[in-house]
Amino acid sequence: MLNNVFFASIVCFFVTAVVQIGGTVFKKEKIAKTSWILTCVSTVVLTVYLVWRGVEAGRLPLANQFEFATAFAWGIAVMTIILHLKMQIDWLGAISMPAIFLMLSYAALLPRDITELMPALKSAWFGLHISSAVFSYAGFAIACFAGMRYLTNIGKGVREDDVAMKKLDYLMYRMIAFGFILLTVVILSGCIWAEQAWSAFWSWDPKETWALISWIIYAIYLHLRINKKHSGRKMAIVAVVSMICVIFTFIGVNQLLPGLHSYK
To answer: Which residues contact 68 (CB under 8 A, 6 or more apart)?
Structure first.
């Protein structure tokens, strides 16, 4: 039954993605309203799945690659809803819903068995460290989507001094700042946790190293944005390309660079 709810969420997000894209292409108000309702329903279904899985496991559902991928997709969905409510960002769903569907499809290929936590993971830092990573990555993903939108608009001939373009640029900055703060929490809490679990704050484990690389890349973005006053097309490219490093940290390290943080 639990698996049925998971696959129902994939179907829901697929349908939502199709309707969202249709609403963007045909610009029909009824389609836009339908897509908003479907976004909320799909997110509720995924929330039910994660809560149910957490109850079944007796812990936060964040202990393996499948659970993190599912939570990552949920984080993007939640942030999409929040941004829609707070800032009336209607275009976001047309990018985030297909991305969520792809992330859940990736998760569906992974083992879904509920397993006991490894001894090293049984810590008070577990929830803070991994939940911060979920929303950090989701923030970076939204920034990437905004960058994609920005570059697409430039391709359509929209001027960079257009009000909508300035809002997109600022959204990228805010989402990256948000993700950067949480990634800092991830790294610092991970250092403390590592010292307790393995008697070393830092061991240059592949995932630690790539998390640090991601942190440095986004630190450079923020330095250029705040101190050098850079904005526009170049910053949009950085926001999009930087997400590749995040995805590699999440997926590539597990597959190619096994270490202490590798899990299936």
So the answer is: 62, 130, 133, 134, 250
